[in-house]
Design goal:
about 70 residues, mainly alpha, elongated
Length: about 70
């Protein structure tokens, strides 16, 4: 059956937007291996998002092997 409607495109989540921004910085060499990322609080302020969104983004980046998360070391 043909419908006159288009499928709704899912917008990116806040955490996906953060991941894309940080990943682009890594790929463009704005962030180099071994360099520490800003703190969670600083990232929250930079992106104007909640800590939950930042933490989710960092977990996604870690799962992709782009960053290493170390507790209490930054």
């Amino acid at each position: 059956m043909h419908t006159p409607f288009e499928k709704i495109q899912r917008p990116s989540t806040l955490s996906q937007v953060i991941v894309e921004n940080i990943e682009m910085s890594i790929r463009k060499r704005k962030l180099v291996p071994g360099q520490k990322l800003p703190t969670e609080q600083e990232l929250c302020a930079m992106f104007s998002v909640s800590r939950t969104a930042v933490r989710e983004a960092l977990r996604m980046l870690s799962a992709r092997g782009l960053i290493t998360i170390r507790k209490r070391t930054g």
